Amino acid sequence: MRVCWRKIPSQRNSMACLSAACERAGYRLEFVNGPEEDITLYSLNSITGPSFIPEIRDADVITVVGGPHACARWKELVRIADYVVVGEGEFTVPRLLDSLHTNGPPPPGVATISSYTPIDHTVFLDGNPSFGEYKGYIEISRGCPFGCTYCQTPRIFGNRIRHRSIHSIGKLAQSFHDIRFLSPNALAYGTDGIHPDLRSIHSLLRELSRIPDKDIFLGTFPGEIRPEFVSEEAVDLIARYCSNTRIHIGAQSGAESTLQKICRGHTLSDVWKAIDHCTDGGFTPVIDIIVGFPDETDEELLETVSFCQEVARIGYVHAHRFFPLPGTPLQGRVSRDLIPEVVSALGSLALSGRLTGSWNNPEIRFFSKISK
Fold first, then answer.
1. For a Cys staple, 248 with which of 91, 224, 288, 335, CB 3.0–4.6 Å?
2. What are the DSSP calls for 141-159, one per residue?
3. Helix, strand or coil for residue 287?
């Protein structure tokens, strides 16, 4: 039985993780640029994923669809795909391939046009090597206890954060020159995700620093940091063990009222304290923001622009336009129009080299991150 993986650049980490999981189960994936026999697997995110729907619908092979978009829209996707994986795929996908090989029924966690049984497990990160020959970032944590209204993470992976062990991370790190982490909040490693505690991250960095000829990057894309976890002690740890000169902080808005509406769980004061800790420690802050939330007022937009202008004097801003992700409280909502003053101000910051991202086209995201 030939099993193929549809190459989609934005799904690099899913490709690495699931190809390793399938290989352990005896299925070696072939990477393809379109549907091919016997089975083609797709991982779709909610921004670029819909563009692949015509291809999946017209494919004359067995199609298996998973990823964030599939988790939120499985009832729609079962009409065009043969199988839809709902939830984490490391165990579900190999079990599905086994059932296809033996002509058995699909396992829990797989939806079809005629049936669906919810997933019956939670993935233990240490049980998955994260990658094989095809590499992604090292995933150190999964899940998020916060409920930001625009974010899919807690809706897919749960609101209890899980962590890979230091031993497992150390083994995976041997395969890299630059060690970079995938995490919803890198400084939350080893914690409940709500209360900062640096003991585990200190132990992890100390252990990784013993591996010769490795550059460690913590607090950079794709493992940015929540502002309330940034402290003087945390910055000192990054300075002691890591090679990055910039620290990415997820602020998401420069308006206090917007932070409350999107349920960020931190204040604007927390953001400025984090920025101060970074600059005091010799790091350049890179601040993520989102503009165009559906209920964002003109005043709130101008507050965010003013915030960006202040940040740009000492660091960088990465901005993108709100996009309504399926499965979130803001699904189905529309990004509000940006007033001319906002477009002009953000454009000026971009021309100065202090702002990256796309605040007009919500489909362009994560491709211009400043990573060092």
1. 224
2. EE--S---TT--HHHHH-S
3. strand
* Tokens at 367, concatenated: 């491709």
Question: Can you list the alpha helix ranges (DSSP code H) found in the chain?
Answer: 12-24, 53-58, 68-72, 74-77, 92-102, 153-157, 166-173, 199-208, 232-241, 256-261, 268-280, 298-312, 340-351
User: Measured between alpha carbons, how far is 151 from 174 in angstroms, rounded to an integer?
Assistant: 32
For residues 142 and 263, what is the distance between their CA atoms, to the nearest angstrom? 20
* Cα gap 84→118, rounded to integer Å: 12
Q: pLDDT, tens digit, for every residue of 86-137?
A: 999 999 999 999 999 999 999 999 999 999 999 998 899 998 877 766 667 8
How far apart, in whole angstroms, are the C-alpha atoms of residue 252 and residue 263?
Answer: 11
Each domain of the chain, given as residue ranges in start order, spans 3-111, 137-358
Q: How many degrees, rounded to 5, is the angle at CA 264 between CA 262 and CA 268? A: 105
Cβ neighbors of 328 (< 8 A, separation 6 or more) are 72, 149, 150, 151, 152, 155
In terms of CATH architecture, what is 137-358? Alpha-Beta Barrel (3.20)
Q: What is the CATH number of domain 3-111?
A: 3.40.50
Distance CA 75, CA 108 (A): 15
Strands lying side by side in the sheet with 284-291: 246-252, 284-291, 316-321, 355-358
Rounded CA separation 364/324 (Å): 14
Write the CA distances from 207 to 137, 214, 247, integer angstroms.
Answer: 18, 12, 21
Mean pLDDT over each residue of the chain, to the nearest integer: 93
pLDDT at res. 221:
84
Cβ pair 286, 316 in contact under 8 A: yes
Q: At what angle do helices 199-208 and 166-173 cross, to 10 degrees?
A: 30
Phi, psi at 12, each rounded to 5° = -60, -45
Whole-number pLDDT of residue 367: 38
- How far is residue 275's CA from residue 97's CA, in Å, rounded to a whole number? 48
User: Does the predicted model carry a pTM greater than 0.70?
Assistant: yes
Q: Which residue has the tokens 């007022």?
A: 297
Q: Which two tokens stand for residue 167?
A: 């031993």
